[in-house]
């Protein structure tokens, strides 16, 4: 019995003694980043840019794994349940932390406790996009048709609770029209359906939509943010198109499981901050239609909490009930 106790104590001391070394040696193998959207989506594109920057600074490859579905809940569940050792990162969105809590009574992760937010990973304005063959050339045309035909004008999204879905709900409530939401498994599928004329419109990012915009297959009518974007400066905002208080922006956050040791989480956060400050990185993202907002220490969490409450108010206004 004494031998067993001594052996247990020796093992415990060995593990305890190894912990600082493990933190100091981090990372010593490849890291994965879970992106809760389909390959080719705007979030996937952004994730790969972040992964490349982090890999260069951490000295190990950061491999993107796409886990789409359930408004980011599938990816969030897998990330939250991963070992909190710094080898699993998660690119969460406003859907993960602000929208899903109002859509679902039960989630396979806790939006407020499962993750530690390491920093803002950018904003994604949503554009109201229609087919190039569509008769709608302005937001006013689109709204007029919606008013004349309640519930018949369709818009696609990457699923219930996605930013594209919520922007549509917000526009409908603001303009006093009823739009018919058509969820797809992914944003690229929805955009393809719009280009083919199968769905009237989609609220989508320019990041993923630009190839079809440049090819003349689709055209943007308005953008959801209070500002015009760098990549599509001629596209008016919804605010300047008759709805002055309209402002809706998708946002992203780099996260780790909440129990990740502070020294490891801080190491990743420092590397991510360096990536985000890099002028070449910021210029590339701006060209993709993804501006990065700088937050003072602690301010990003306050922003997330405020946006969560805003989504609660929107859900109440749009009569969205959790399932």
Automatic annotation (TrEMBL):
This is ABC transporter substrate-binding protein. The keyword Signal applies. Residues 1-23 form the signal peptide. Pfam families: TctC. CDD domains: PBP2_Bug_TTT (cd07012). It comes from the Bacteria. Keywords: Signal. Belongs to the UPF0065 (bug) family.
């Amino acid at each position: 019995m004494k031998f067993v106790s001594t052996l247990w104590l020796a093992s415990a001391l060995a593990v305890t003694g190894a912990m600082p070394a493990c933190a100091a040696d981090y990372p010593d193998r490849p890291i994965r980043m879970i992106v809760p959207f389909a390959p080719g989506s705007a979030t996937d594109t952004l994730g790969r840019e972040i992964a490349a920057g982090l890999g260069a600074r951490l000295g190990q490859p950061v491999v993107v794994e796409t886990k789409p579905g359930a408004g980011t809940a599938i990816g969030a569940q897998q990330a939250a349940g991963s070992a909190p050792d710094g080898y699993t990162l998660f690119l969460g969105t406003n859907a993960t932390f602000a929208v899903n809590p109002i859509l679902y009574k039960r989630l396979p992760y806790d939006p407020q406790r499962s993750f530690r937010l390491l920093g803002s990973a950018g904003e994604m304005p949503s554009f109201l996009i229609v087919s190039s063959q569509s008769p709608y050339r302005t937001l006013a045309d689109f709204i007029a048709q919606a008013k004349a035909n309640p519930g018949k004008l369709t818009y696609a999204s990457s699923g219930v609770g996605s930013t594209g879905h919520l922007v549509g709900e917000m526009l409908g409530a603001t303009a006093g029209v009823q739009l018919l939401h058509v969820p797809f498994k992914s944003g690229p599928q929805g955009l393809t359906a719009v280009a083919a004329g199968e769905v009237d419109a989609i609220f989508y990012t320019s990041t993923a939509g630009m190839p079809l915009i440049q090819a003349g297959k689709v055209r943007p009518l308005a953008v959801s943010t209070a500002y015009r974007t760098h990549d599509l400066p001629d596209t008016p905002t919804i605010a300047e198109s008759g709805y002055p208080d309209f402002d809706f922006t998708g946002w992203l956050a780099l996260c780790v499981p909440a129990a990740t040791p502070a020294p490891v989480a801080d190491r990743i956060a420092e590397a991510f901050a360096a990536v985000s400050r890099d002028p070449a990185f910021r210029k590339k993202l701006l060209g993709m239609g993804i501006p990065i907002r700088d937050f003072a220490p602690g301010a990003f969490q306050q922003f997330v909490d405020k946006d969560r409450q805003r989504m609660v108010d929107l859900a109440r206004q749009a009569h969205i009930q959790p399932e």
